[in-house]
Amino acid sequence: MRKLQTQGVHHITLTGADRQTSIDFWEGVLGMPFVFDQPNLDDPDEGHLYFDPGDGRLITVFTNEARKPVHNRTPTDPGCVHHLAFNVSRATFSQVAERLTERGIGHSGPKDRGFMDSIYFKDPLGLLIELACYRFEPPRGCSHADVMIEAHRIRVERGDYNIQEVHLADAIERLVARTQQTLSSDQGS
């Protein structure tokens, strides 16, 4: 049977609060440019806002002026969305906790995830948001996923619990050795 091969996330659509609360959070807090809006074509009582999360793709938000912000946690039952994670630079990540605190937004504080650092907080309707920062840059011609696959293999070979920076460094070295030509006959020194 043939696959329906995906090529990345096209967009993610969320149910938001009212229009201004949604704009204030997605553009005002997270810095996602507000690209355009139009009616929700499936529900004339709702608006449909479009934001660029930084990669030219889209995060869209259905709005309704009758929905006001609540700070309850969104459901985490099986089949529900647990959280959305967005990539940020190391420079931005170092400022996230301070900037969220300045806005009065509660957060988890930085979390060490071995291959990345994360911080968690909620959107105006209680959806858990993660800002994440990789601890590595992939070598030229490779993706973050390429490095993660190789780091996973190394971790499993060594019997380690989770991916750590040493696995990333060794994975990058392996990928460079496989993909980068050299005139040297001995790359082991």
UniProtKB/TrEMBL annotation:
Sequence intervals crossing the membrane: none
Keywords on record: Dioxygenase, Oxidoreductase
Domain VOC: start-end pairs: 8-134
Highest taxon above the source species: Bacteria
A GO MF label: dioxygenase activity
Pfam family, one: Glyoxalase
Keyword Hydrolase in annotation: no
Listed name of the protein: Catechol 2,3-dioxygenase
